[in-house]
Amino acid sequence: MKKNTKLYETVAALLSPGKGILAADESDPTAGKRLAMVHLPNKPENRQDFREILFTAPDIEKYLSGVIMYDSSIRNTTDDGTPFPDVLTAKGIVPGIKVDLGTSELQGFKGEVVTQGLDNLTDRFEEYYDMGARFAKWRAVITIDEDKTPTDEAIKINSIMLARYAQIAQTSSIVPIVEPEVIHAGDHSIQRAELVTTRTLQILFQTLMEYKVDLAGLILKSSMVLAGDVYSEQSSPEEVANATLRTFHMSVPYECAGIVFLSGGQTPERSTKNLNAIGKMGEQPWPITFSFSRAIEEPVLKAWEGKKENEGKAKEVLLEVSKQNSLASLGKL
Fold first, then answer.
1. Which residue in 61, 103, 110, 132 has the fewest CB atoms around it within 10 Å?
2. Is 5-329 in CATH node 3.20.20.70?
């Protein structure tokens, strides 16, 4: 593919040292689960109120370089009618968009899924670009189950979908974030998680190169490597850091623009501690930072509780949580 220098400018902005990406890209049903944590009904106005708190909090641009939105939120506005992408752009934060349409069963492969959403993607990117989006995200779901799952076939079909999405994004001057999420839920050891994550990333990058995706204009969004959530021995931050960085050195070409982490079902505190342990390992061949969703949003939700009088407090909590993760990304906590 022809090199597109616009991609490199966006990548440089997104991977500014000490800054991360907020993944505020939950689908409307998933946003409802977030709201339910503070006993709020899943209504458009509640989703809008919460996102307005996230996007308008003073000084978040010190710690956040980008925000990933969902289709309904990139079309949304603040109470005074300012489109959310414009609010972010005015702060120097890059607006992004989640474009996959969720998973469906991969026939013949029990318990495995493939992500949908390639139909009309060129047209959708054109519209999102006009709205201000300069990067995008597509998530694949990789589940560990005993010795049989995941299969190489399931990893490969998801990698092909990720590669095709990345091609279309780059042609549209939009930086693709590829997210092959190895699911944390399960009773697998950290050793098994490391094997699966390494294999997943090797197949993914082999496929991206086969389809001539420009790795210098692409960001990997990866799980941290850690034992399953119900495994008898939970991984320490140091174990997570070592296993995760070993995996990257075995799997991720140095040309890749950078790596951001999903929190993947970990508590906010644990996500930050693990990120800090990785940051303490020193400089790597790629910039590495965070792209958390629940790990940032949960403390903010708890501070807000859906009450108008708590909005200021919620914004302060967002700034503090973002600052802590910024320091952790540099290994300075």
1. 110
2. yes
